[in-house]
Amino acid sequence: MKRFLICVLFFIALRYTYAEHAQQRTQDERAVTINITAKQNAKMQILIAPLSEDENLAKTTKALMYDLQVSGQFNPKIQKLEKPNSKKVMKELWAAGYPFVIFLDNNSWRLYDTGMAQIISAKKIELEKGIHNTLIGHKIADQLWPILTGKKSSFSCIMVACKTIDKNRKYIYAFHLSDFLDKDKLPKLIVNSPTLNIAPRWHSTKPLLYFSQHTPTNVRLVAIDRNKKQRIVTNFDGLNMTPSISENGSIVISLTKNGFGRLCKYNFDEKRKKGVFKAITASHIHAISPSFINENEIVFCHIKNGVPRIAKIDLNTKVIEYITDSYSVCPTYSKINNSIAYCKRVDGVSQVFAYNLSDKKHKQLTSNSGDKDECCWSPCGNFIVFTSDNGKSLRTCVLNMLNNEIVPVSPLGENWSFPSWAPDYDMQVF
């Protein structure tokens, strides 16, 4: 009777469906699709069982645990099991409230349904040479997430943000979403040129990071690759900032001079064998912060009479359509959600909003104190990273779209700004 009641409660909390098995596949190859209906404060217990005492495996296991924890969907626990595959152990785990267990070794992972003592899915770990152990844990989390939730994830996709060192220096650091949960894990220094290095943006398909760098005469655009090799991209007078790269590689940048910013598209001049930028917004329009929606449309921040608004422009017709009618900034587009995230003032406080391009509806996503700015989608569309300013310090925070929770991912008492989430390059970056 007790087991029956547990089963009933379990199936109410989950939508648990098995996919059809391919013919003549071994048990280790069988895959099950599990859809978990997320509810705020209703976290599923899941056990992670490492199969050895190896130090590297411990780092991988810990990274996986932190990813599941920060997701807000699961309450993970690490525990070594004496007889991991026995039906007795499975029965005990089920009775203890663990419907799933993940077995890990240095070469593979296996996900089990404890209630049925049955393997759900298994995979060998095949990653590039030299990859660090915590990233292996993040990759495993990305492999497990679609099986557990039916959604994509971005645990292995790196983020960057700018840390204020003093009034004349901002350095750029890299980190993963769940790193702040690990007291032994510190952000990795990427750019430490002794000046202000700000507004990092990622290339859409190549592991390249662009950022703007203050010089005595201008603010130039610089790119850095995964080997930390830097090169100057544009060095025009004024501000060279916030490039956006489309899926097909088209590049648009904001070039600001004498107080007016123009969106310019990069083209390679075959005759002169050099790159040139052609303006796509008129000289009387102050346009900054472009973000590609598709190859023909860009969303950007349009500033008129000192009031910034969100607008989009058709690159073929040059027609501009306004999306917001009041103070709003820093638009960023998510293809998965077909939505634009932006920050808008509400009762004197800047909050994060989303505008769905399909139904043309705006939705307020945050309502807490602290001015929000510089928002950016995760590649999976489940999270939005942004800067929160409480008047005393700037913190990098992440909004979990699955449960509406906000978690700070930068240390208290420090000033962090300009966060940017990398696409899924499927390789180690930095």
Strand content: 35-45%
Mean pLDDT: 89
3D shape: elongated
Number of domains: 2
CATH topology of the largest domain: Neuraminidase
Oligomeric state of the chains?
Answer: single chain
CATH class of the largest domain: Mainly Beta
Number of helices: 4
Which structural category do the helix and sheet elements fall into?
Answer: mainly beta
CATH architecture of the largest domain: 6 Propeller
Question: What does the main sheet amount to?
Answer: 5 strands, mixed
Q: What share of the residues lie within helices? A: 10-25%
Ranges where pLDDT stays below 50 over 5 or more residues in a row are 1-40
Question: Could you explain how this protein is built, in words?
Answer:
There is one protein chain. The chain is 13% helix and 45% strand. Helix 2 (55-70) packs across helix 4. The protein is built from four helices and 31 strands. It has helices at residues 2-13, 55-70, 87-95, 133-149, and strands at 14-16, 34-36, 44-50, 74-78, 100-104, 108-113, 118-124, 159-166, 169-175, 188-191, 197-202, 208-214, 219-225, 230-234, 239-245, 251-257, 260-269, 274-279, 286-292, 297-304, 307-314, 320-322, 328-334, 339-346, 349-356, 361-364, 371-377, 383-389, 394-400, 406-408, 416-421. The protein has two domains: 2-149, Anticodon-binding domain (Rossmann fold, 3-Layer(aba) Sandwich); 159-421, TolB, C-terminal domain (Neuraminidase), CATH 2.120.10.30.
